[in-house]
C-alpha cells in the first residue's frame, strides 16, 4: 500500500470517527440533569413567556436531530454558537484562552520528551546505581497525580521560595513562560516517569538483539551502537505512546489550569461543565477529541518511517 493511499484512508477514518464523536459529544450533555434555562434565570422565577423566549433563542425545544444538524453545520463554518454564561461567541472565548493552553501543553510536552527520553537512555546504558536511582525517581513521578504535584510545587516554589507566581497566565510571551513553568512541570511529571520507564525497557530489549551483538563484535564504537542500533530501534515503542502522552496532557490540563488559575480552555471547560454552558463544553470537547485523533494520525504516519519493518497496511489496521 502506497504512503499516500494509506494516509488518505487513515484521514477518512479519522473524519468518520470525529463525526461520530461529535454526535456523542452533542448528545451526552442532554442526558445530564438540569437545563440551561435554569442557569440563565439564575434561580429566579420566570413567567412561561420568559422561559419560552429563552428556549426559542437557544433552540432548546427543537427536536434533537434538528439541533445536532444545525450545530454541526455551524461548527463546519467555524461557528461554535454563543456561550450561555458569558453571553458572547464561543469562538471568541476560545481564541482568547487557547494560546495559554497550547503553550502550556507544548512546554509540558518538551519536558516529557527531553527529560523522559534522557532518563530512559541513561538508565539503560549506565545501569548499576544510576539505573536504581532513575527507577526510584520515576516511580515517585508516576505515583504523583498532576493535581498533587500542582499543590506541592505551589507550596514550595511559589509560597515558600517565591520563585514563580502561584496563579495566572501572564501577559506577553516571556511572562507567559514564567507563569506557566510550574503548571508545565506539574503536568509533565507523571508522563516523564512513564516515558523514562518505557524507553529504558525498550532499549534494554533492543540491546539483546542479534544485530547489536554483531555491531559490537565488529568494533563499532559503543556510542554509535547505542545511537543507531539501540535507541533508533526503540523509537517505535516510544512513538506508540504519542497518543497516550498527548491525551493525558489534554485531560490533565483541566486539573492543572484550575489549580494554578491559568486562563486556558481547561479551566474554561471546568467552569462551563459546572454551569452547564452547553455550547462551550461541546466546542472544547470536540477540539480535544480532534487534537487527540490528529496526533494518532501523525503517529500512524510516522511509525513506518521509524520502523520500516512495519507495513503501512498492518500498522493502519492495528491503529
TrEMBL record:
SUPFAM superfamilies, from UniProt? MetI-like
Show the coiled coil region(s): none
CDD domains reported in the protein's UniProt record: TM_PBP2
Top-level division of the source organism's lineage:
Bacteria
Chain ranges of the ABC transmembrane type-1 domain:
98-299
Family named by the database record = Belongs to the binding-protein-dependent transport system permease family.
Q: What is this protein called?
A: ABC transporter permease
